[in-house]
Amino acid sequence: MEQQPQLNDHNKQEYPPMHTAEHLLNATMVKTFGCPRSRNAHIEKKKSKCDYELPTCPTEEQIHAIEEKVNEAIDRHLPVTCEFMTHEEAQSIVDLSKLPENASETLRIVRIGDYDACACIGQHVENTSEIGLFKIISYDYADGKLRLRFKLIK
Predict the structure, then answer these.
(1) CA distance 140 to 79
(2) Alpha-carbon distance 83 to 120, whole Å?
(3) Which of 88, 128, 133, 152 gives a 20 to 30 Å CA spacing to 73?
(4) Sign of CA pseudo-dihedral 72, 40, 52, 146
């Protein structure tokens, strides 16, 4: 029998569809703007928000394109899978800069098809088809930070 790796305790109960949508949004922002993944996120079932460091505010067209790209990824019905590896193995695959200092030696890498890979101990759906429609409900930009507020429509 294979032994389950020892991971850090998780202090949050995310809504799996929203948390998975956050991963897709982060990947979309990195691919589109070359910015880091969100370092400040508040993920809830009803609505969520993420902050991104950007040198300028995106245009209305760019905000709309972000929403479209996330929904295109959702519509691809991508599998969400997990694998376990050491920090050393993971560093060439994912950005480890957000890991807490006390992160366990074994990491859980969550992959969403070929669209995203991230070290994460949260809850996720098994397939992006379970997420629903991603909708950016508002945004603002100040001091080099873009805040996106979003929800899911089932």
Answers:
(1) 32
(2) 10
(3) 88
(4) positive
